[in-house]
Amino acid sequence: MFAAGLGVRLGMRGGIVIVASVLTWLGNRRWLAVVLVGVFYIPAMTLHDVGNDLAYQIQGERATSHWNLIVASFCVAVFVCVGVLLVLHLKDHPRRADAVLFGVMTTGLAVAAHRLLFMINTESMHYAQYAILAVLLFPLTWRFGETVLLATLLGMVDEGYQYFHLHGDWGTYYDFNDTILNLIGAGFGVVMVHALVGRAMGGPRLSGYSANRMLRAPVFVVSIGALVVGILSYFVGLLWVCPTAETPSWAVVLRRGGPSPDFWIHTAWGKSYHEVQPLEGTVALVLLAAVYYALDYRARRGAKHAPIDIPGSVE
Questions:
Q1: Confidence of residue 86 (pLDDT cuts 50, 70, 90)
Q2: What is the DSSP string of the chain?
Q3: pLDDT at 14
Q4: Which residue(s) pair with 69 in the sheet?
Q5: Structure pTM?
Q6: Which of 127, 101, 102 is nearest to 113 (CA)?
């Protein structure tokens, strides 16, 4: 039993060192990291309906309530397995308290989102998809907050592709529920990078990370620019939340089906969820993204313990 446990831990350490080495290597070859992100992200975005059809085929004749239970059980099992591995690994982690804090916080966000935002449990795939995407994006930024923000922007593009192209003739709405799930998934990704890779790398060297650097980061500039354009578009009549008799045909409408009838939407299989409105979604995304910038701040405080330089750091 002891030998088996020792073998698992040694295997984990070897795998973690490999992951750390790969991320560092990609950080020095960002063009290749961009290619890998594209190879993963573009099919995941464009084949969205194919994935949905596959999920429906797997569900088959099962009642949705039964299917939700199966999916929830699978997700809990995966989460417990990953959690146990993380706990085993965190014993000697230099920033163990941060890893635990942000891991518990992200788990809490996921549980709250399940209660408030899930229509059906297969939406938990957002977590896995954007956790993987965040890991692939990390070598491009080498910052936790920027990685989450970049993944969130790509998630918004993903939802826009579905709303305006795949489902352009549906009387539906731009899905801020899913954009929030995407952000939480990216949060899981950076927490895993911090927890699993941080010790092998000695922790990110963030001694040069500052508010000034954050404000100059391209992803932050693009995000602020998109927010400003959205606000201005709303006030000048280019962007509408819901259509009215006065809405021009060329205007961008975020809820083609009109306003949500109630705060809670009740499904036939007993699940209630809330359709996040554009203002609610925007505020939630800003606040949640800011949370993961705090992980950079915490890592900066422990940067003096880092024995190696990290690509992209500012001395």
A1: confident
A2: -HHHHHHHHHHHHHHHHHHHHHHHHHHT-HHHHHHHHHHHHHHHHHTHHHHHHHHHHHHTTS-HHHHHHHHHHHHHHHHHHHHHHHHHHGGG-TTHHHHHHHHHHHHHHHHHHHHHT-SSGGGGHHHHHHHHHHHHHHHHH--HHHHHHHHHHHHHHHHHHIIIIITTTSS-B--HHHHHHHHHHHHHHHHHIIIIIHHHHTS---TT--HHHHHH-HHHHHHHHHHHHHHHHHHHTSEESS--TT--TTSEESBTT-S-SSSSEE-TTS-EE----HHHHHHHHHHHHHHHHHHHHHHHHTGGG--S--TT---
A3: 58
A4: none
A5: 0.89
A6: 127
pLDDT at 298 over 90: no
Where b means 16+ CB within 10 Å and e means fewer, 179-211 reads bbbbbbbbbbbbbbbbbbbbbbbbbbbbeebee
Give pLDDT tens digits for 201-253. 544 444 445 677 788 889 999 999 999 999 999 999 999 999 998 999 899 99
Predicted pLDDT of residue 72: 92
